[in-house]
């Protein structure tokens, strides 16, 4: 059958020419639109490094001199500290709260802020200002049970167990596994020293890699701690309350009760309750604001458009071809060929056309990938991609997108071929030979 099909394709090369050219163009186009979908989806599938279930950020606002509710008698640092401490107590003492943290305003996933720092492994590289790792920085106040690592559900990189805070938190830090590997070549870094500027910090623990953005990859992260709050005059801009609910809490009931009963209590001094947001809500908001959501929608729309064009092209082409070859189909049926045999022959023809076109376009795709680069989610120019993730390895990345493009293209082409051919194959031999 294969020899007959090849002979048939060659004899009808002019009729097949335009669909062959369409397959060449669409194969290239489809690869370019599937590439970002693959990267964003692969990044999203990376373990977050924390458990977002039941996590909320309590945002507190602060009146200033331009607001009519501003109280100048409550504007001193000492009064603000007293008021903010009272707010912290109200939040943490809610019966639904399992754990909580006074976190820096950049220190929770999908926040609108991002803080970076340079981390050195030794004083020699520090003084030469080279050999550092650019890392993201989280901070929290370890006061009255405030524990960012426990609240987020961050786990020890070696044991996957809970991380305990040291009794003395000053001059201590926790670092991510990726940061430990970059600095020391191993995740066994507890007790080692790291340096930020001239400040020496002892590594109190190493946690699993942690994602700040859901559609990005984990960035090297360092978590520092303070035993008291600083910058009390600007607390709402420096700190947020992050809480984790106890297992089994009715989320909708908690949110309703918090808004009705707790929120009014959070107007103390010049502070006021601003919002209560779930981590999942923050993720959706950031994906929308950063353009990730629209990017995915656009790529899905372009992919759908390309596949629709392929489907209509294949249906139209094989509808015309099957009608033009009614006589051939009638002869085949009269000689005992089954409907399935005829359908398989036409499907094999479509598969051969598609495969040849796809193979011919691969060199152009390789050139495009080398010149323009594979799609990546831009973080910053200091980010060093982790080769452990397949999307960061050129060969694996290119091959996966190529395979996805081929499979999707093949399925659509075969379905677009099957519809008209199946109809033509069901024609009775007498009817098919009537016009011959």
Short structural summary:
It contains 14 helices and ten strands. The protein has 436 residues and is an alpha+beta fold. Helix 10 packs parallel to helix 13 (394-425) and helix 12 runs antiparallel to helix 13.
Description:
This protein has 436 residues and is α+β, with helices and mostly antiparallel strands. The chain folds into 2 domains: 2-47 and 290-433, no CATH class; 55-289, no CATH class. Helices cover 50% and strands 16% of the residues. The chain has 14 helices and 10 strands. The protein has helices spanning 2-11, 13-45, 77-92, 123-128, 148-152, 177-184, 235-238, 251-262, 279-289, 292-324, 326-334, 339-372, 394-425, 429-433, and strands spanning 55-62, 97-104, 116-119, 133-141, 172-176, 193-196, 199-207, 221-226, 239-245, 271-278. Strands 1, 2, 3, 4, 5, 6, 7, 8, 9 and 10 form a 10-stranded mixed sheet that branches. β6 (193-196) and β7 (199-207) form a beta hairpin. It is elongated, with a radius of gyration of 31 Å. It starts with a helix and ends with a helix. GO terms for molecular function: transmembrane transporter activity. The chain crosses the membrane at residues 20-40, 298-320, 341-366, 394-419.
């Amino acid at each position: 059958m294969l020899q007959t099909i090849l002979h048939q394709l060659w004899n009808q090369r002019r009729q097949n020419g335009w669909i062959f050219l369409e397959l060449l163009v669409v194969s290239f186009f489809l690869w370019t639109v599937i590439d970002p979908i693959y990267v964003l989806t692969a990044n999203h599938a990376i373990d977050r490094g924390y458990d977002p279930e039941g996590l909320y950020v309590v945002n507190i606002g602060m009146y200033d001199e331009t607001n009519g509710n501003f109280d100048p008698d409550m504007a001193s640092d000492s009064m603000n500290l007293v008021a903010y401490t009272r707010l912290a107590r109200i939040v943490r003492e809610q019966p639904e709260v399992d754990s909580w943290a006074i976190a820096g305003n950049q220190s929770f996933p999908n926040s609108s802020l991002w803080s970076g720092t340079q981390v050195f492994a030794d004083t020699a590289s520090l003084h030469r200002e080279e050999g550092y790792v650019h890392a993201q920085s989280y901070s929290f106040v370890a006061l009255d049970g405030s524990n960012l690592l426990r609240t987020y559900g961050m786990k020890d990189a070696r044991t996957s167990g809970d991380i305990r805070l040291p009794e003395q938190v000053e001059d201590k830090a926790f670092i991510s596994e990726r940061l430990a590997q970059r600095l020391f070549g191993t995740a066994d870094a507890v007790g080692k020293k790291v340096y930020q500027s001239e400040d020496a910090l002892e590594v109190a623990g190493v946690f699993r890699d942690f994602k700040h953005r859901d559609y990005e990859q984990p960035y090297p992260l360092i978590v520092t701690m303070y035993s008291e709050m600083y910058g009390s005059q600007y607390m709402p801009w420096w700190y947020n309350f992050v809480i984790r609910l106890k297992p089994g809490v009715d989320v909708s009931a908690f949110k309703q009760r918090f808004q009705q009963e707790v929120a009014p209590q959070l107007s103390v001094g010049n502070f006021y309750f601003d919002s209560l947001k779930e981590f999942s809500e923050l993720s959706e908001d950031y994906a929308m604001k950063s353009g990730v959501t629209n990017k995915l929608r656009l790529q899905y729309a372009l992919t759908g458009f390309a596949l629709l064009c392929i489907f209509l092209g294949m249906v139209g082409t094989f509808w015309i071809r099957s009608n033009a070859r009614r006589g051939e189909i009638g002869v085949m049926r009269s000689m005992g060929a089954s409907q399935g045999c005829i359908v398989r022959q036409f499907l094999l023809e479509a598969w051969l056309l598609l495969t040849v076109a796809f193979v011919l376009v691969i060199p152009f795709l390789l050139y495009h990938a080398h010149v323009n680069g594979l799609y990546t989610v831009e973080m910053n120019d200091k980010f060093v991609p982790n080769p452990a993730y397949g999307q960061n390895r050129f060969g694996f990345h290119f091959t996966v997108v190529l395979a996805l493009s081929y499979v999707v293209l093949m399925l659509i082409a075969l379905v677009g071929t099957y519809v008209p051919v199946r109809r033509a194959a069901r024609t009775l031999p007498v009817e098919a030979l009537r016009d011959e």
